[in-house]
Specification:
53 residues, alpha+beta, 1 helix, 4 strands, SH3 domain-containing protein
Amino acid sequence: MIKYKAAVYDKPDTTASRITNIVPGRSVLLIGVYKNFKLIAVDGAEGWVYDKK
């Protein structure tokens, strides 16, 4: 589990990224990482998000 402290920006418009954008600071399940992209799951939705640093 990871907790985002700020809004998350995504490459595709995925359900998981929309949920995390609506609720910044929410804990999500981290499934995988590729470069600055993270595959996360939240409330049964999975999606790639871009971790803007």
